[in-house]
Amino acid sequence: ITCSSTSATPYVIWEDCWRFNLLRGLRALTDLLEARAKQVSPGDQSKWRICVECDNKPSVLWSTGSTQSIRRALERRTIERMVTAVADEIAFARSQPNVQFSLSHLPGRENTRSDYLSRLHDRSCGSSTLGEILCRPSAKASPISAVAAQQEPSPQEDQDAVALLSELDEGGTLGRLRESVQIPRYVADSVEVGASISTIISSMESALRIRETRRSPSPVSLAERLAADAFHTDDVYRRIRLLRVILAALRAHADDKKLPEDLTEDLHYKWEEQDVRSTFRSLQLYDDKTSPYLNGDKTVETSGPYVVEDDVVYFSVGTIHGQCCSRLYLPRHASKFRWLVVRDAHRRCIHSGSVGTAAECDDYYIPGLLRACRDFVADCVTCSVARASHQWAHGPTETSKWTMEELARLPPYHTCGVDFLTLGPASSTTPTARRKSWKIITVTCLYSKHTTWIVCDNEDGASALKALLKVQLLRGGLVRLLFDCASYFKGLDFRRKLRVRLGAEAFYLAPRAPWEGALFERTHGTGLTKLRVLLRGQKMKNLTPDQAQDYIDQ
């Protein structure tokens, strides 16, 4: 166990380097044992074996009580300061229960790691030590010049620097920066304070992750690499502007000129038209169609669609007014930048589809624009949610729950279909109007198609149970009943009473296949046709329930 020079402030440095490590180590050890004794129960029988090895042989001989002559070489000052402290610490450690304590000498040649760590901060570094250099406030800053070392940056400069890098590094996609806070200061004050070129290049490379791609089989343009880490096209333009400012600062530094002030104005959010042209030139240099025009290998045709202006290729298009205009040509291979352009256009048109998105991309000429917009809209979550419609993922269930072979082996009315039928105006809600219509419950055998109709007072679960009980007394059976999905049929109370009073089990039609009710509802048409003849000339309100039941039985 070693201690540094800051942990033994009452003693001088050269004494602390080798004499008082034993004392500090024992103190830490006894603190650990004391804390353990307070937290562990008295009945704990776990044993500790403590072995202390020290390369200071005089300290070990005195601590173990040896009478060798080398003990006499121990300084009186060391004895006066260590005797009481070490003795108390060793006595406390040995007094702990289940602790085996030993103290032995370890030769210095075998104690290489502890000896190296104890002397690490005292290593000579020029005219001072390593510890002194690390404790200096400016140790982490890169030495740029004597003038820059005398100028301490103001808090406002640091805040502006952090704001600039935060704007360039949205979402933390650019990774860690080695000289993050000092990058804008190097750019803006490179001429005045004399920033080194190597420092600027290293910082720029760390901020934008620029790497050589000479060995790559398919090199990627700088703008395309920036678009891979950008959120929208403005990010790419601002980072291109930052690169232009850095290059301008390097040229000014090489020519001993001052950097123009308007170049660094509003650097963290402003970009110009020149930045857009630089971005497209970077993309067009890697395109097979446009690179020959920029390199001078091919001449632009006079009547052709391509036009070269300001070292950038434009594409001539016509307008609805019969005029001709030139737009920046965006190559097909720039997939990441094309995705950013389409994404910005899709946000501006408020998710109005592929045609609306393509209409917003009027600043550039993009080959295959409509196809790119369709692919983007197909992956847009907002558009998918807005245009979502309710659809069934699976088809309807089977038409019948039981086969005719199975029903043929069962007695009549064993499996029946039950439904309500209204005779008269269906929209009868008042007591006066209720007399004009009659509620009839129909029970049809699914095998023989024989049907029984019973007049009910109301269309509810209680009336249905009363009518079904009457049908069971007349026809028997009613073991399995098939209902539609009406609320009075699907209630828990209705199913419980149906099981208790009739001994029947309820089944229901599939909500997505209402045509299954035709198994027992097809007799409704025949019965209503017959009743229409029998009730001709009769008034519904003058019929009593018994009279109505007689007509229904006929």
What's the structural blueprint in terms of helices and strands?
Elements (H helix, E strand, L loop, with lengths): L12 H4 L4 H19 L8 E7 L2 H7 L12 H20 L3 E7 L6 H7 L5 E2 L2 E2 H5 L11 H5 L4 H14 L14 H6 L1 H4 L3 H12 L13 H7 L4 H22 L18 H12 L6 H5 L10 E4 L2 E7 L5 E6 L5 H14 L4 H8 L3 E2 L3 H11 L1 H6 L17 H5 L6 E9 L7 H4 L3 E8 L5 E6 L4 H15 L4 E4 L3 H4 L1 H11 L2 E4 L9 H17 L10 H9 L1
Parallel strand pairs: 1-2, 7-8, 9-12, 12-13
Antiparallel strand pairs: 3-4, 5-6, 6-7, 9-10, 10-11
Helix pairs in contact: 2-4, 11-13, 12-16, 13-14, 16-17, 16-18, 17-18, 22-24
What are the defining features of this structure?
554 residues, alpha/beta, Endonuclease III, domain 1, 4 domains, 5-stranded mixed beta sheet, 26 helices, flat
**Binned strand content:** 5-15%
Helix content: 40-55%
Shape: flat
**What's the average pLDDT?**
72
Query: What is the spatial order of strands in the main beta sheet?
Result: 11-10-9-12-13
State the end-to-end distance.
110 Å
Count of DSSP strands: 13
Structural classification: alpha/beta
CATH topology tier name of the largest domain: Nucleotidyltransferase, domain 5
InterPro entries: Integrase_cat-core, RNaseH-like_sf, RNaseH_sf
GO molecular function: nucleic acid binding
Organism: Perkinsus olseni (Perkinsus atlanticus)
Domain Integrase catalytic: 407-554
